[in-house]
Amino acid sequence: METQAPYEVALSAPVAPGIPHSHESEEAVIGAVLINPEVYYDVAQFLQSDDFYIHRLRWIWDAFTRLHESRTPLDLLTASEELSRMDQLAEIGGPAYLTSLVNQVPTSLHAEAYGRVVEAHSLRRKLLNAANSVATMAYNEQIESIDLAGQAAQAIEEAIKRSTNGTIENVSSVASRVYDLTDKNSRLEEDEKDLGLMTGYPDLDKLLRGIDKKNLVIVGGRPSMGKSAFLQNIMRNVAVGQGKNVAFFSMEASNEEVTRRLISQISLVDGQDIKEGTLSDGEWPKFTNAVEQVSNANIFMDDTAALSPIQLRTKCKRLKMVHGLDLIIVDYLQLMRVSGMGGLYETTTYVARSLKDLAQEIDVPVLAAAQLSRKLEDRKNKRPMLSDLKDSGEIEQAANIVIFPYRADYYDDEVPTQNITEIIVAKHRDGPLGTVELLMRPQYTKFESVETRRIDFTTNN
User: Fold this and answer.
1) Which residue range is the domain that position 75 belongs to?
2) Is the pLDDT score of 134 beyond 80?
3) pLDDT of 54 over the 90 cut
């Protein structure tokens, strides 16, 4: 049976009409690298093989990449041998096609410009694919409506993700920013310094020296240790006390319950009395004033059960774009849902990494509560340790800071430190470890600073 030469087959392959691409630019990139292999490093910073629409050029770019990874000099001969090793040389048209690419490019000086054209067309194709994917999902009635918006947003964002990624930065520009911040802080009073987000608890803030914007802070504890209440108190301090914008995602308590706690903390009116409406005449003005303060605060609440990381990311990005965002609080990590994920370990690992990625991507600190393993209860010393973080080591790995609220009176009602909660900083990637003490007023679910002692002070290496 007579067959055509592979080179002729490749050349005559039909090109789909209307699909964004530039045949000439793709060939020019490959030809420029073959003329001057050094330009590969310039173009490879932003271009990948799947950016090429023409498959044989994609194979050639993959060959270039393998040669560089194996430290093999790149030229016409080594590229031909690498393609032959992968049984692709004949498919692309043989050595003659590679030679023709070299001959078509007058100079390698414009390799980056050719590459940018290829990149731009690649982005357009990815957006078209994402749009088709969104349309398919929209017609699929088996997809829950609560997931549809998140999956659609993810499809679009994945298409443009690479084009918005940060680029390599020279250390001199970073050093300049560090100098500017240091110079600025040197001229400010202690309470005016730009040290990051403050929790509103002086002893804890002195230990942490502020929470940086890209940080993930894990607040871990067993039930009844006050981790949710602690996060709600920080929300109050940041939103009401400092006037900042806070997003609070609660998968355990309703928005009404959380708001009732905020009002109780501010008014110092018993939360149960607020719920039952049994306020005294003297408490009503305090209650009304607290309602006004909470109403004026920039707090955005969401009590969606089993929120997914995709939904969380979509909502936070929109909040930051529309209103601005200074803090994200998630209560709590293990209650988040991931569709199609395997076991609990894989799910928790994915959620922890997603929270860290969220903080880094939108430049907003994330505070997340996490449940601790019940094995802690079997120990004589019930103070939490990092190994008690439940379900995944990725929680500890992803976190910049790990805090454990601990109440000794929960386990021993005769201890002298009744209603004292130890706030244990067990991991602090950029600073010291230690413990501060807060007074818990349970009728208001309110933490207050007290005269404290710091124990087990160590440097985190």
Assistant:
1) 6-119
2) yes
3) yes
